[in-house]
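In response to reviewer comment 3 from the previous cycle, which asked for concrete evidence that the modeling workflow produces usable outputs, we include below a single protein chain processed end to end. The sequence was submitted unchanged, and the resulting C-alpha cells are shown without manual editing.
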Amino acid sequence: MKKIFFSTAFFLLTIIAFSQTEITEIAFPGFGSILYQKTDTIIPKGVDIEKTGEQIWNFKKIKGLSSRTLYVLRPEQTFFHDKYARANYATRIDNDKNETQIHYSFISNDSCFFIGNSNTDPILHFSLTRPHVLYFKKHNYSQPDTSITDELRTISAEGLYLINKLHVTIYNSIDAWGTLKLPKTTAQSIRFKEEYFVIDSSFQWTNEGLSYISDTTYSFKRYIWYEPTVEHGYVNLMTIEIHNKNIRITYLFKHKLNGIFKPE
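The workflow returned the following C-alpha cells.
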C-alpha cells in the first residue's frame, strides 16, 4: 500500500508568477502536455539536499535507470473520472512496467486541491475524505520555515479484496531555491519540501463482512523542484522521495508542453 500512496500527484503540479518573495497566481501546463521522466535511486556525491536557502544542485551525472511518461488530460478523458466528480485536472502516468496511475485535482483561482488517484493494475482507488490543499496563493518562499500543516484525516484505498484507511498529516514548506543541473537541462528552480506522517489501517473483505487486519505507522519526505515559466506555469523538474534508506528520484528528461491551464 505504501508504494501506491507515495506516487500521489504532487510531482506534477505547477504554479506561475515567480518572484523573489512569493507565488502570486496559480497556473498549470495545458491539456495535451506530455512530460517524459526518468528515475534513479542514488543521489550524486557532493549533493546535500537537506540544505535550505539559495543552493546549486548538480545532478548532471544521474543515470536514469527506468522511465515513465506523464500525460496532462481532462478528467473525462480518463478511466475513473466518475469517482472524482469535482476534478477539473488529471494526469496519467505510464511506466516502463506497463503500470498506470491516474491523479485527479481541482484547481481554483487561488488554490490547488489533490482529490485522489487510481491504479489500473491492480485496480485501486484512493479517495480523500477532505481534499488536500497543495499550495496557496501568495505563498512566501524566501523564509525556509514557512509551513502549511494539512491533516487529511482519512484516505480510502479500495481494491477487490482489501481496503486501507490512511490517516495522514503533511507539513509543506518552500525551503530552498537556486540552480538545478540535470543531464539535459540547467534551470533556476524553487524547491518544495513535504513531510508525511501516516497511520495505515488495513481491512479485508470476508464472508462475514469487513475484517480489521492491522495498523502500520510510517513517515517519509518528498522534495520537489519546479522551474517557473510564463508559457506553461511551473514545470516539475525533479522529485526525490526518501523513506528510511530507500530513495526514489524522478526527473524530467524532455517534454512537449501544450500551452497553459487556468481554471475557468
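The two ends are 35 Å apart (CA to CA). We consider this sufficient to address the reviewer's concern, and the full set will be provided in the supplementary archive.
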